[in-house]
What we know:
Elements: H1 2-42, E1 52-55, H2 78-87, E2 121-125, E3 129-134, E4 139-144, E5 161-167, E6 170-176, E7 196-205, E8 208-216, E9 225-233, H3 246-256
Parallel strand pairs: 4-5
Antiparallel strand pairs: 1-2, 1-9, 2-3, 3-4, 5-6, 6-7, 7-8, 8-9
Amino acid sequence: MRNCANRKRAAFEAIACRGIMMCLALAGALSSRAAAQSSAKAGTGMAHDMSGIWDAPIGQRTIVPGQPQHNPAPPMTPAAQAQFDSNRRELTDDHPITINPVYRCHPPGVPDAYTNGGYPFEIVQTPQRIFMFYESAHLWREIWMDGREMPRESDPLWMGYSVGHWDGDDLVVETAHFNDKTWIDGQGHPHSEDMKLTEVFHRPQHDRLEIEFRIDDPKSYTATWVIRYHYNLKPKWEIGEAFCIVEDEARFIEQLVPKAGAKAGTAVPRN
């Protein structure tokens, strides 16, 4: 009986040992495959560095040395011109613009998120995605860097759907699938859901970032609209908490709108 038991125990241990060895081998193979896939997908996402907190110099937000300043908008289509005139109709009465959607705590969208209120923003890089945190209204967006293509279909989005790639040392971001509820800027320039935005991030110096925005929206503009901004690195700054509070916006509008009988001031759009 003892010999029989010993043989059974030995057989069981042999089977268990083979099982453990197979599991270890399988785990090693899966780990190697996962590492290979991770390396393949990561690409050069971490080989370039745009990370940090960036802020625009006051009064110089649209100046890039050697480049044209803020280009005026191209001629608009009739529908866009009508919308633009409606967005700015308060100015005809020497009244500041108060119907900007951001005053109702709507997300500003892009590119307006960069300039709404003049707040800084932070870029955080990972191999698969780049995150952008805007102090303005405490917004954030993600830029996919894993090689995916722009989806053919998407729900209309406030910040759009963004995919990026590296062109040398420049970061190129394509964004589409916007809704049409935001303005391009605080001046009232509209856009349609077909707008496509290309951002080119260029870092000529360690502490300097230049961004070129190319706006293509044939339903609203007769040509590509190019805007250029530049920013300074703020290594000791932190992104603050700047939520949009409806009551605060209401008080801000009260300050903009002249009291009855008082002389009206000039337009005071936030950007």
